[in-house]
Amino acid sequence: MALQDSFDQLKSIDVNNLDFSNMGSWPGAVKAVMVVGLFLLILSAGYYWFITDKQAQLSRAESQEIKLRKSYEDKAQLAANLDALRIQKREMEEAFGALLRQLPSDTEVPGLLEDITRTAIDNDLQIESIDLQPEQRTEFYIELPMKIVVEGGYHKIGAFVSGAANLSRIVTLHDFMIEPLKGNLQQLRMEIVAKTYRYVEEPAQ
Fold this sequence. Notes:
It is built from 5 helices and 5 strands. It is of the alpha+beta class. α4 runs antiparallel to α5 (154-165).
């Protein structure tokens, strides 16, 4: 009944008759509405200034949590595979060392020339020339090119190329040029550049 009276009292109030300089004289129903309105206004402002900001912080924290969780999972996987990675690293170092041992030192280059010469002779080729070319330095190794000129039959030249590529030392073959000899089309003249490599040793500290 009191609630109905309050509604009736609100309906009968003319806002123009309210004295804003003396709010204490307002009817109780109006005061109650003002208190509720003020409470809702404070609540909305608090939500905007505090809750919204906290939600943004929470969202950033959740995003950071996802990144940290992914980082943790990646590191945990690496840690789980650490022993396997160490074994793989050791195997790679051994394989790399084996490859380095195939690279000739300065003192082994004459022996390599002898191997190439022997391969040519074993395949009945006539050696016109074997000339060392200037070294080409890169970041990790030095190229040692040599220009080889031989004469012989087609199959003999093919066997020589195969033999040179399969020497115990690393040798790569480049810049083929083959042409028939004048007056003897059964014989060919081949120019080829063979390259071997030497590891660049770091200077002693």
